[in-house]
Design a protein that fits this description.
Number of domains: 1
CATH architecture: Beta Barrel
Number of helices: 2
Strand content: 35-45%
Largest sheet: 6 strands, antiparallel
CATH class: Mainly Beta
């Protein structure tokens, strides 16, 4: 019984990062403070202007530092992998890390459609 209690207690101590999932797809920033990641499973909201903002938005580096497509002045989209925690409603709750990929990585994925 003590062993079971110890296991249950240690499960409560698991850091949030251990519960993260890796999501790869199109990271879209069409207008100021609006960010969405579209992967093969869903469309994931990470920021909505004047409203919702996931923790860790500062982990997203300037997409202009890598391959990206500009669609609205300095806004656009790029291919990213992100380690995040999300909810069943399609919101990213926390961003732990991000990595920008070449555009070709997302363009070659048959499960992804390039944003327009």
């Amino acid at each position: 019984m003590k062993k079971l209690l110890a296991i249950c207690f240690s499960c409560m101590l698991v850091p949030a990062a251990a519960l993260a999932e890796t999501r790869c797809g199109w990271l879209i920033n069409p207008t100021p403070r609006n960010w969405t990641l579209i992967d093969a499973q869903n469309e994931w909201l990470s920021m909505l202007q004047g409203g919702y903002e996931a923790k860790g938005m500062d982990k997203i580096k300037d997409m202009a530092e890598g391959e990206h497509v500009t669609i609205n002045y300095s806004h656009g989209y790029a291919c990213f992998c992100m380690n995040v925690s999300s909810d069943k409603d399609g919101s990213i709750k926390q961003i732990f890390s991000t990595r920008q990929l070449p555009l070709s990585k997302c363009r070659r994925d048959p499960a992804l459609s390039e944003p327009r």
